[in-house]
Write a structure and sequence with these properties.
The chain has 510 residues and is an alpha/beta fold. 37% of the residues lie in helices and 23% in strands. It has 3 domains: 4-170, Spore Coat Polysaccharide Biosynthesis Protein SpsA, Chain A (Alpha-Beta Complex); 173-249, no CATH class; 253-508, Spore Coat Polysaccharide Biosynthesis Protein SpsA, Chain A, CATH 3.90.550. Strands 1, 2, 3, 4, 5, 6, 7, 8 and 11 form a 9-stranded mixed β-sheet that branches. An 8-stranded mixed β-sheet has the order 14-13-12-15-21-17-22-20, sandwiched between helices. The protein has a 4-stranded mixed β-sheet with strand order 16-23-18-19. Helix 5 (173-191) packs parallel to helix 7, helix 6 runs antiparallel to helix 7 (223-249) and helix 15 runs parallel beside helix 16 (483-496).
């Protein structure tokens, strides 16, 4: 090892920056400070004590620390936070490495302090960290928080040095709680719509965190301070999962209803959508060329509690792909639920889809088929059927149970089980595959081909059982005349593992 660049990121660190710089100056050949527009004297003090200072807006710890490394002149990087210092023993170990040591990546223990008292309980020690590394062999990885240095070479040996990295991050209980709150907020933002948690799980995780820190990690050995740290750690767990739950529950959707010349069915579908226990943010009717009766019907809904948009296209035969793409492009929400205009929705339908949603997942709901007689009766009375109504097929699909759903729901890649009459997905995923393929004309396989591209992009197709089902009104089967040609388009997507179609959604996006 020849020369070392010390890399430090800062924001309003005038309390710590001098001691940090003085500490690393004993081993480093240059000191680089990347500041995030501090409003105190951090920059002036850093420059006074010999650091080269750069400015960059903070977007996350990982990106910030890698950006700081990019300003360093030497290959070996000693990366510290401003509230960290090197112990004398660690300084000697690093100097010895500089003189005759071998290795590209080095770790050492971090000794955390509370009110300048070293804490070795509560899981705070040894807290091993990689902070000295050759920049061609390792880099910072992770999200906005909980970043770490990771080797680029899987088999590269990590040399552990004697001595401690001294961390003075917490002067009092306010510092502790504020940092927990800050990290909780960032965690919730990073993991929103990716991880799910319920109230019972939050309570269990919170209690388990305190038990682990205070008893298993011997927080009791540090008396009141150990209790305070254990309690703060548990509160941090509570806050991050509580905020995650709130973020997930804030998700709203656009409901797209595909229709063609069946206003009497569309009316009861709209009524069922407006009776949801969790309403969509907007309803978009994707109209494949209906006559004036549909337009007149929708005019009656112009003053409802949520906006209803009518996206109409000229009747040129079955062109559901075109109509859906236009509606997806017009959708204002990031999550889309797509149904046909003959799907009558139980009150929990929207909530079920949102509950099943996750990033990188398409949700395939199920159907309960109505007989012709029951369909006529349902439309006439404008009432959603019940579980015991006569004339239901696949009646079991209307069993609604969160417990059974957790047990029996499953991912599935069978594209021939795709029913676009009841699916939901992220708008960003639809954009990534360029929506529905408009080379399809006539009934058949346009939904399977869309989902095949979704799967090719690494997005999961998920079947929630015992939830997210809807009543499918009877209708005569559409013409299968174009099915052979449509099968060829589907087969091309399957065989070539296509990620997106050429003729799709992008033509309607701004």
């Amino acid at each position: 090892m020849n020369k070392i660049s010390a890399s430090i990121i800062t924001y309003n660190e005038e309390e710590h920056i001098i001691k940090c710089i003085q500490s690393v100056a004993k081993v480093a050949d240059e000191i680089v400070v990347l500041d995030s527009n501090s409003t105190d004297n951090t920059v002036a003090l850093a420059e006074k004590y010999g650091a080269r200072v750069f400015q960059r807006k903070f977007v996350g710890f990982t990106e910030q620390k890698n950006a700081a490394v990019s300003h360093c002149n030497y290959n070996f990087i000693l990366s510290l936070d401003a509230d960290e210092e090197l112990s004398e023993e660690l300084i000697r170990a690093i100097l010895l490495c500089k003189k005759d040591g071998e290795g590209k990546i080095f770790s050492f223990n971090r000794l955390n302090h509370f009110n300048r008292k070293p804490i070795k309980s509560c899981g705070w020690y040894p807290d091993k960290k990689i902070r000295l590394f050759h920049k061609d062999y390792a880099r910072w990885v992770g999200g906005m928080v909980h970043e770490e240095v990771q080797s680029n070479k899987p088999n590269e040996k990590i040399v552990h040095l004697k001595g401690d990295l001294l961390h003075y991050g917490f002067n009092n209980s306010n510092d502790l709680l504020n940092k927990m709150q800050k990290y909780a907020t960032i965690y919730a933002r990073e993991n929103a719509y990716k991880k799910k948690v319920n109230g019972l799980e939050i309570w269990i995780k919170t209690q388990a965190a305190f038990f682990k820190n205070f008893w298993l990690k011997k927080g009791f050995a540090d008396g009141y301070i150990g209790y305070l740290i254990s309690k703060a750690n548990a509160n941090g767990v509570h806050y991050k999962y509580a905020q995650l739950k709130e973020q997930n529950e804030s998700l709203r959707c656009s409901l797209i209803i595909t229709t063609y010349n069946r206003p009497e069915a569309l009316q009861i579908v709209l009524e069922s959508a407006l009776r949801q226990n969790k309403l969509p943010k907007e309803i978009i009717v994707a109209d494949d060329g209906s006559g004036f009766e549909t337009k007149e019907l929708l005019a009656q809904y112009s003053n409802r509690i949520i906006p209803i948009k009518h996206i109409w296209q000229e009747d040129q035969g079955f062109r559901a792909s075109h109509a859906r793409n236009k509606a997806i492009a017009a959708a204002q929400e990031m999550y889309i639920i797509l149904i046909d205009g003959d799907m009558v929705l139980p009150k929990t339908f929207i909530q079920d889809h949102l509950s099943a949603s996750k990033k990188s997942r398409l949700v395939q709901g199920s159907r309960v088929l109505l007989s012709e007689h029951l369909s006529i009766k349902t439309i006439k009375n404008m009432q959603t059927p019940g579980f015991f109504s006569l004339g239901l097929k696949n009646r079991k699909n209307r069993i609604h149970s969160k417990v059974l759903s957790k047990i029996f729901s499953y991912p599935n890649e069978n594209i021939f089980k795709v029913r676009s009459a009841n699916i939901s997905f992220w708008k960003s995923d639809a954009i990534a595959v360029n929506g529905f393929n408009e080379d399809f004309n006539g009934w058949g396989r346009e939904d399977s081909e869309f989902v095949q591209r979704i799967l090719n992009n690494g997005i999961q197709k998920f079947h929630p059982k015992f939830m997210a089902s809807a009543y499918h009104l009877y209708h005569k089967e559409s013409s299968r005349k174009q099915l052979p040609e449509n099968e060829k388009i589907l087969q091309e997507t399957v065989s070539n593992k296509l990620l997106k179609c050429a003729n799709g959604l992008n033509k309607y996006l701004n």
